[in-house]
Specification:
Elements (H helix, E strand, L loop, with lengths): L1 H8 L3 H22 L19 H16 L6 E5 L7 H4 L8 E6 L2 H12 L5 E5 L26 E6 L8 H14 E11 L1 E2 L1 H7 L9 E2 L3 E3 L9 E4 H9 L5 E6 L16 E6 L3
Parallel strand pairs: 1-2, 1-4, 2-3, 4-5, 6-9
Antiparallel strand pairs: 5-11, 7-8, 8-9, 10-11
Length: 280
């Protein structure tokens, strides 16, 4: 698996998308022609984040947002890195007429698919493409370290980022956390996933050769030197004190994932989950 992953990372971003499209083309043609794929489920070749059952994973994420982040039907939600709509689709069945959803992503094909499949039926669900550089997903564009979210201050009750900070470097994470603090309403919550490097993760990962972060950069670690955004793990103290508290946010909950080798049945997800809050 590490060899296959390294080969995949060695491809330019555009080629990675093409490789996935070609790999899943026979399955996508069959599911499309047979009617086995619903109108709000994207072709497998377009699903550029995550793995497993698209709808089942989305339902689990919605449940986590309700149970951990206190999401309510009337809330206004911001999905940072909205991808191909994995979270948006199940939220169409949860948010009511008072609630609304905004999502943005650096991959244009995901935004356009979501506009066609979701916004056309649910106008309170909106998606925005932002041209930002990320050596995992796209080449060129602006810097995420300087990007201002295109929303007013104190505009959202809940902000969600799944597998976003895991692909960002410190300056980018710091800026996004400051922006989250700006757009959250007082008392609002942020549900975010990370790879958190602490003593337990370091100990467990030594026996887990399939998912490691061998390149130590001090406060953070990389899985791959050439594609730095491939996967990034953050030293826990630095993440909490410098990045999260530095943005005026507070860690309410921490749920460590099974990526490092923890028992799966004791974890809520593969990645580590932090629920952050903005003081009232």
């Amino acid at each position: 698996m590490p060899t296959i992953r390294k080969l995949f990372y060695s491809l330019p971003p555009a080629w990675r998308f093409l490789a996935r499209r070609l790999y899943y083309l026979p399955t996508d043609l069959y599911e499309g022609l047979s009617g086995r794929r619903g109108p709000m489920t994207p072709p497998r070749g377009l699903i550029y984040t995550g793995s497993g059952d698209f709808r089942a994973q989305g339902e689990k994420m919605r449940q986590d947002l309700v149970e951990l982040a206190g999401l309510q039907p009337h809330h206004r939600v911001l999905d940072v890195g909205s991808g191909i709509g994995r979270i948006a689709v199940p939220l169409t069945e949860y948010l009511d007429e008072q609630g609304s959803y905004e999502g943005f992503d650096v991959v244009e094909v995901g935004v356009r698919w979501c506009e066609k499949a979701i916004t056309s039926h649910f106008p309170n669900f909106r998606f925005t493409y932002v041209s930002l550089d990320n050596d995992l997903y796209r080449s060129g564009g602006g810097s995420a370290a300087d990007f201002r979210f295109p929303y007013p201050d104190e505009d959202f009750d809940v902000v969600v980022l799944t597998s976003v900070f895991t692909h960002m470097l410190p300056g980018e994470v710091a800026n996004y956390l400051r922006e989250i603090g700006r757009v959250l309403c007082p008392g609002g919550r942020c549900f975010a996933t990370f790879f958190i490097w602490n003593e337990e993760a370091a100990r467990l990962s030594r026996a887990n050769p399939h998912f490691t972060f061998p390149y130590d950069r001090g406060h953070y670690r990389l899985m791959d030197e050439q594609v730095q955004a491939a996967n990034v793990a953050y030293e826990e103290g630095y993440l909490r004190r410098e990045l999260i508290e530095g943005a005026g946010l507070k860690v309410e909950q921490a749920h460590y994932g099974y990526w490092a080798g923890r028992k799966k049945e004791r974890c809520k997800d593969f990645q580590d989950i932090l629920v952050l809050s903005k003081p009232k």
